[in-house]
Amino acid sequence: MWVDWERPSSTTGRGGMPTSTNRTKWPIGGGAFSFQPGWFQGHGSAFIYLNLGLGRIPDNMSHPMITPFEIVGPTNNPYPGTVCLPQVPLPANVSVQVGDLATIQIVELAKHGAALYNCADIEFAEPEDVPEVTRDNCFNSSEIGFRSLFTSSSLQSAAPVNPSPGVSSILLPLMMVVMVRCWMM
């Protein structure tokens, strides 16, 4: 994986690599996806996203394939290990035919804010034309953990909801002065 700030996984931004002419065959009903998350320092934990772009050179990767999740590695230093998702479905409302081309993009978003992008160019095929997924080629290393991402509106802060009148009487005029100065620039 590599960091690509300009246009992740585009034909000009795949870490300097063009679209592949040697595409991996991937089942038309979805299939396995495996990756090694700990190659770079600072990725002891990260959010994982898997997206699909349709066509030979996708304009975008706007079809989420999985619900994002968090991985937790053994250290913040580089570490070995593999994560395998044995059955990644096609995104909702996406239909493909044998021979259609696409690109699968994985995004590893680290807690410090940097994101690593990697892409796999694929060609959809009948399941019997794709190598079988086994415990030897699709496994999760025991030193890598997983967590679900969630949000909650029921969590409450211990901080007061409204600042005291004294604070707002000072902050409001100050904010207005700053806004007027910015507008005048």
Automatic annotation (TrEMBL):
How does the record classify its membrane topology? Lipid-anchor; GPI-anchor
Outline the segment boundaries, as ranges, of region: Disordered.
Answer: 1-22
Tell me which InterPro entries the record gives: BIM1-like, BIM1-like_dom
Q: What is this protein called?
A: Copper acquisition factor BIM1-like domain-containing protein
> Keyword set for this entry?
Cell membrane, Glycoprotein, GPI-anchor, Lipoprotein, Membrane, Signal
Question: Where is it found, in Gene Ontology cellular component terms?
Answer: plasma membrane; side of membrane
Domain Copper acquisition factor BIM1-like residue range list: 15-142
Composition skew (Polar residues), residue ranges:
8-22
Q: What is its main location?
A: membrane
Classify the source by domain of life: Eukaryota
Task: Give the subcellular location.
Answer: Cell membrane
